[in-house]
Amino acid sequence: MISDRFMIEPATANDSDEILGILEETVFPSGMSLVYTRRPDAYRSFMAEAEDVHLFVCRDKQANQIAGMAAYGFHDCFIDGRPQKVVYLFGLRTRPQYRGHRAFVLLPQAYHETVQQLHARGISYFFTATLKDNTIARRFLTRHRPRMPSCQLLCPYLTLGFRTLTRPPSLPGSCLFRKATSDDRTTIEEFLTREGRRYSFFPARIDSLIEQHAELSWDSFYLLADRHHGDILACGAEWDQTSYKQYIVMGYRGIMKLVRNLSFLFPFFGYPSFPKPPSTLRFSFLSFWCVKDNQPEYLKWFFGGFAYATRRYPYFVAGIAETHPLRPSLDRRRMLRRDSHIYMVGDHTTPSDLERLRESPYLECGWL
Known about the structure:
The chain is an alpha+beta fold.
C-alpha cells in the first residue's frame, strides 16, 4: 500500500530502535500513566508474540522515518470446541505528529485488506483489544468508514492484579496444591483440552506455546489436585514476560495521585501497593488457567496457592472476560483492575457468531 508520501511495508530488524521510540512516546491515558514497551529489541519482541507474526510499518518517504506500525499474529484456539486459526490484530501505533495525516488511516486500511485476504483463505475469526478509557481508540475502532475494518464489541475484559501472599493459604484436606513437573505434561494437556475447549479462544496447543517461549515450560504450571485420586481440579502457568516486554509506570493523575501516596497501606488490606514512578512493574501472568466444571471453590483455592507460590513478585496478573462463568466469583477477592474491550474485526462476523462467542470467552492475558 502506497501514497505519494507514505508507504506500507514489512518491518525489518533494522527498524527495532525506531519502533521502540514510537512505543515509548505513547503513554496510555488513565489515572496511572503507563508506557507499554518492548526492551531491549522491539522487533524481536513483536516476533515473539506468536508462532507467525507479521509486523508492518508506515514510512514517511519525505521525512525518512516511520510514521506508525501495526502487527497481527496467528494463534491456535478452540472455537466451538474445535482448534481453529485465529488472528489477533495488535500493536497499532502512530506518532502523534501524524494523527490527522494520511498515515493515520493507511495502517487501518492495511488491516482491512489483511482481514479480507485472510478471510478469503478460510480464516473466520479476527480480534483486537483496547483499554476502556482509551476513548480515542474506541471511537476509531467503532466508527464505520469506507475501507476500514468493522469492529463489533465481543465483551468487556478485566485485567486483574492480585497481591501475592507471604504465608501459605489454608486448603481443605482433600486438596493438594503443587508445582508441576515435566512428568505432568500429558495430564495437563488432557485437562486443558477437556476444560479449555468449552471456551471460545482458549489456546488449543499449549505444547506449541511452550516450544515457542523460552520462559515457559511444563514446570511453569501449578496444579490444584485431588489429594486421594490425583485428578486436576485447576491449573495455570506462571508467565514472566519482562525479558521482552515491560510496563513502566510514568506517573499518576487526578485522584490516583492522592491514592498512590496512601498505597503503602494497601498491603495491610490485601491489595498491592502502587510503585513509585518511573518504575517497571514486576509481576507474573497467571496464564492458560482452567478450573474443573467452573467450581468457584476450586478457583479460590487455586488462586490462593498461586499467590503464595509466586511471592517473589509483589503481585500477579490474571485476565477474565466479563461474560466468563467464573467472573462473579472474583468479586470476593481484593484486587486492582484495568478494564478493556475486546472487539471482533471484519464484516463477516454475524450477530449469531457474536452471540455464540460471547457465551464463554477466554482471552489469554499474556497475549493482550
